[in-house]
Write a structure and sequence with these properties.
343 residues; alpha/beta; Aspartate Aminotransferase, domain 2; Aspartate Aminotransferase, domain 1; seven-stranded mixed sheet; two-stranded parallel ribbon; 15 helices; globular
Amino acid sequence: MSQETVFDFRSDTVTRPDDAMRAAMAAAEVGDDVYGDDKTTANLEARVADMLGKAAGLFVSSGTQSNLIAILCHAARGEEFLSGRSYHTVYYEAGGAATLGGVIPCPLPVDTAGRLSAADIDKAVKPDDFHHPVTRLLCLENTVNGRIQTAAHLSDLCAAARRHKLNCHLDGARLMNAAVACNMDVSAFTAGFDSVSLCLSKGLAAPVGSVLVGDQAFISRARRLRKQLGGGMRQVGMLAAAGHHALDNNISRLHEDHQRAFTLATALRTIQNVHIDMDTVETNMVYVDMPEDRKAGLRSYLAEKGLLISPAKNTFRLVTHKDIPEHAIERFADSLASYMRNH
């Protein structure tokens, strides 16, 4: 199967720069960003900060680095942060905050939509007792496994954190998906947070990078930490130019990804022994379940059809994105129907 005919449903991280984005990268004005001389990067940092309602921004290599820097800015060695037990800062970032910063994660339960409760935050904050770490930070996420965390809900959780004098950080890896799905300005989701990480390389389809935002003092500390972590980059304006192009062209089109996810889920749920909860399809992710004895051969079967999926955990996760056109949805539905009939 040739590369041009392969459709990759594993994640929205797999998108490739199109010709227009590559042209923007090639034309970028660059300088040494460690010296503060890369205007394209500086403009991107200021642009994202303004979008998210904050004073300053910092371009970093990844969402993982962005979240790590934020946690280490907000909390000291031996202190702890609260977060959802399934959230990236706890479960998918290799324990970086604890390993590199000595900041202890305190995982909290989440409901089926990925939501924390204010009551659980209240219960998790440690008393002023030298037997316990000091609770310093609340880390939230939006979206969570494709589920929207509403602006009102996030505001309520931040208010709970403030009652305990906690700082608040938002992992906004797919924040723009939530904003587009709700038809709301993205700053409505970020108002209660001290810092926010926005990923450019998922649904926005840039090849690399996230922008971390906060107040000026926070970003000054973050810049030092980025250097300590080896994240200071030189002529990085070529990557920042991809970020500018993504913001110019790929926010409003996220609704296409959401519609294709809904179309895919609608088609797949008509297949016998394929189970999808349509209430979970809120943005660009579809979770598919089927009998255990059917799961083993599915990935290899679909790969032969030019369709890539991730391994099943409890379910198969399918992600729509810029490089999944309408006819790929049809191919996927037809291929899964064929597999279920014949295996």
